[in-house]
Amino acid sequence: MLTVARPPLLAQTVQKGSLTQPKTYEQNVPWKETGTRAKTADYTLDPHWDAHAPPQVRELTWTITRADAAPDGYSRQVISINGQYPGPLVEANEGDTLVVHVTNQLDELASVHWHGMNQNMTIFADGVPGFSQCPIPPGVTYTYRFKLEQWGTYWYHSHSSVQYIEGLHGPLIIHSRREAYQRGRDYDDEVLLFLYDWYHERTEVIAQALNSTKGYNHFLAAPPPQSSLVNGRGHFDCSKQALSQTPQTYSCVTPRLMPSLTLEPNKRYRFRMVNSGGHAMYHVTMDRDQFRLVATDGVDIHPSTQSIIPINIGQRYDAIVHTDQGGRGKGKTKPSSFWFRVRNQRICLAYDDAAADAEARVAVYYADPPAQGKAITKAAVVTDGVDKPEPTTTPIVDVLGPTCRDLDDHALVPVESLTKPNHEVRNVRSFATNFGVLTAMGENATLGRFFVNGVTARNHPYKPFLRDLHEGRNVSGDVAFAEFLDDVWVGDIIINNNDTAIVHPYHLHGRYFNIVARGPGVMTPEKWRNLDTSSATVPRRDTISIASHSYAVLRILTDTPGVWPMHCHITWHLAQGFLAAVLVHPNKLREPWAWPKESEDLCRAAKEPDDTETLA
Ligand SMILES: [Cu+2]
Predict the structure, then answer these.
(1) Average pLDDT, whole number, for the chain?
(2) Where is the Plastocyanin-like domain (predicted)?
(3) What's the pLDDT score for residue 151?
(4) Cα(584)–Cα(566) distance, rounded to whole angstroms?
(5) 315 within a domain of the structure (yes/no)
(6) What is the DSSP string of 364-378?
(7) Average pLDDT, integer, range 191-199
């Protein structure tokens, strides 16, 4: 059976009409108040969490609405979950079943993807319209139900166009008795740091402009953010607003205080850091202490000491920070307050916003007077700020320099390996990605788009591939496919980033990958055959930065049947067609489990015509 009908190879420049837009918004239109204020998220991890509790069902009920917020001082509408912005913290244990009832009260389509989850035999819960489900229409409730088979730091986000940047995202923390690093033994408390860039323009306006011949602010390339936020809190200098090409708002008030975090001295904190943004890649640093890195993308690793943590979109890093009082030099003591910095690597942006601050900062204070004994007296959480003198510390020198690259793979060796580096692999598939242009029909102008194997993805949200595969139809058309048939249990995916300048964070759904090779130049299947991966240190993660004119070879266990997106996690690039599909065990998808009644009901709840096309 031929499952994947090969799409025609498109040249970089082709004659083609512009994308169908179901809805249009004007650029530079001031925000209207909804009249409802969003509550800023409180990301306190439960200090009494029982990682040894028997497996249970964790049932959540979410209502998604618009609300007003001014995360960095600039007032605009955001998307809230249960009135909260950004979305609520979800905590669970490995082995639990997560059940989330999502009611969409927006006037647009919605979805929720669970970033990094294997979705083993639950592809229908992966949350990607056009791939694994139909979108959730306004007024409809849809339930995600899946078992958690991993542990660590994850997150969830909308997979409908560029919607998550509006606020439909949040952290997903999975505890386990099997974790290599345990609370009480390896650390005393934990701190969640949900880091992302923030835009003053409605994101759908930006995406639509990018997909027009005019571009956004006259650029075909993705725009820069106006600020960066930590747990929904940031700082924008409203006096600079005129420098920014963003709409006037009903109110912009520069926050008086910087976000703050109070820690107790002589304790070990596990920092769980997520880059849940749209475009900005960060270097996370502290003016005072260093990080003992213990996990990447939810995978426990052998610890290493780092002073700078580069974190690209979609990636997570866990690090233990020891708040000891020793000085760096003889007789010196460390300052009792210092800055935690989230430094936007502006070199990774196509262009910059003159009004934007290059970093988000959190003022870290040590509790006063110092707490005695082992017990943590207060849960550590980032707050709106405290009335104390600001830290006077200066940033460390960024020895990595301005760069969009990942940490060296040697620092990311998993405690437990998944695939054997010398595993015999016979199956290889390739993706080559590049920026290109489409010539719009009848116009002497071009659209900026991304291409994977010559195809720029177009998303048909009401025609999920999974439904077609389940019902025995061929899938074809508007994305590039890589296919691993039902008798293949391990495979390699070559990714060649053929762009001239841009580093992209590539994310694969459905399975971790092991990075068995990477480097400059182009990897071909012929060269791949001679690749010696027997001595490779093999990091395992779900999002990898690949530089321009460079490649990576990703090894996956092909044991989770599904049709899994592989895409750039720069949300603007995804909206410009940077999306492909990895099809694993297609025959298995014909079985009843793969398309539950709820999935079919959701597609039937769709009121839109079947041929609606939205941004990827
Ligand atoms: Cu990209």
Answers:
(1) 89
(2) 64-178, 190-325, 493-587
(3) 97
(4) 12
(5) no
(6) EEE-SSPPPSS---S
(7) 97
